[in-house]
Amino acid sequence: MGNMEFPSETGMRTDRNLPSGIHIVAQARHSRALETALGGSVELVSLEPEEAVSEAVVRTASALVLEVDPTSKASLARVSEIRAIRPGLPLIVALEHADLSLTRTLIRQGVSDVATLPFDVEELVGQLLDVSASLAPSDKAQLALMVSMVRASGGVGATTLATHLAESLTDCGGRAMDVCIIDLDLQFGQVANYLNLKPKTTVLDLLDASDRLDEDLVRDAAQQTEQGMSVIAAPSVIAPLEDVDVDRLLNLLKVARQSFDFVLLDLPANWTNWTLSAALACNEILVVTDQSITGLRQTKRVIELFDVMQVSRENVRVVVNRVGKKLFQAISVGEVADTLSRPVFATVSRDKGELQVAQDQAMLLSQTNRRSAFVKDVDKLAEAICEQVMGS
Fold first, then answer.
1. Among positive and negative, which fits the CA dihedral 333, 339, 343, 345?
2. Nearest to 66 by CA among 53, 84, 85
3. How far is CA 64 from CA 57, 94, 100, 358, in A?
4. Mind listing the pLDDT tens digit of every residue in the chain (392 residues)?
5. What is the pTM of this model?
6. Domains and CATH numbers, the chain
7. Are 296 and 333 in contact (CB under 8 A)?
8. Checking DSSP bridges between strand 2-4 and strand 43-46, what pairing results, if any?
9. Residue 63, number of CB atoms within 10 A of its CB
10. How far apart are CA 354 and CA 369, in angstroms?
11. Which of 175, 183, 167 is nearest to 229 (CA)?
């Protein structure tokens, strides 16, 4: 096992102009076919489909071709693990038996393209040239971390949590971070209302921009708040959920990640093709629940959905909101973890009515009482996320 570099044959590959730093991770029986044709133009890494790819390979690659065994959860999980380390790394997944459903799922997870096994050299070179063309000198391939706030059901305080988390993330371990929260709850989005914003341009306007969409347009649409973050608001009128074009949405999210240091999505409770695509495009998914029986049942269903979509469990985090004192809480945090068969990533304390008072003044609780247990818990959640930002 390990790295295997091969010299290229004289006269081979001179017309292909592949950039340096391309790594191909595959079983030896597949990589052998590339030895003569590609040779020293790429770095061949011989690994079994379930074996972990070293972080050094991920961090040094300009583009990565990864063999995946769709029957192995460990093999599929490598896609999410690589994206967590390098969100913007051009990634081509190589499959021996590709089907349309799996290919669509991988593309939604941010995979650049899907190659067939055994490798067809000319086809693979074409794919590598295509993804390499997207590498701009300004390093646009380095996309910002994107996290989605998912509510298992309405009324769990996800939007309140999202707005406070966005504000806390603007100071990321002492580093000023340009944070944008995108309100994708197209029918009942409240982010702009909570912050007393009057947006002239909304998410739907950006989606309608289609090919005209660029960083300038996204920046102009994002309203700067007095708390320090930017907001791309949901429309003020109820919009049909089925009207969203998935490709346009994913392009919007990509441009937003090129425009800001961190992107936070506030997703609706209803699941559609595009909301699922948005969640799968994120590096991390925060599933917000409370300690109610109804809330936990819904949360379990959402988590099972991500299991079906083969999202790495390490990238789906459970956040328990409105945690009360154990004496007055029928279900403990430990019982929440047992019920969901998942560890609880973070807990946020129930406030004492101060949140509503602050919201009535179009303010965050952090502006009126920085020492509240709620604000301190949100800051702890932000610190945990910042560790990942600094690491990437």
1. negative
2. 53
3. 9, 10, 22, 48
4. 444 333 333 333 333 567 778 999 999 999 888 877 786 678 899 999 999 998 888 877 888 999 999 999 999 999 988 887 777 788 999 999 878 888 888 887 778 899 999 999 999 999 988 887 765 444 444 789 999 999 988 888 999 999 999 999 999 888 889 999 999 999 999 999 999 999 999 999 999 998 899 999 999 999 999 999 999 999 999 988 888 998 899 999 999 999 999 999 999 999 998 999 999 889 899 999 999 999 999 999 999 999 888 788 889 999 999 998 765 567 899 999 999 999 999 999 998 889 999 988 889 999 999 999 999 999 999 999 988 766 65
5. 0.68
6. 2-133 (3.40.50.2300), 145-391 (3.40.50.300)
7. no
8. antiparallel
9. 23
10. 8
11. 167
- Which residue, 190, 87, 61, 67, is CA-closest to 140? 87
Residue 315, number of CB atoms within 10 A of its CB: 19
> In this structure, what token pair is assigned to residue 385?
């996320």
Q: For residue 392, what pLDDT is reported?
A: 54
- Per-residue pLDDT, 135: 57
User: What span, in angstroms and rounded, lies between the C-alpha atoms of 130 and 58?
Assistant: 19
Q: Read off the tokens for 176.
A: 């000023």
Cβ pair 30, 48 in contact under 8 A: no
Residue 362 has phi, psi (to 5 degrees) of 55, 40
Across the beta sheet with 344-349, what order do the strands follow?
223-224, 230-232, 179-183, 262-266, 145-151, 284-289, 316-323, 344-349
Q: CA 186 to CA 241: how far, in whole Å?
A: 7
**Rounded CA gap, 231 and 149, in Å?**
15
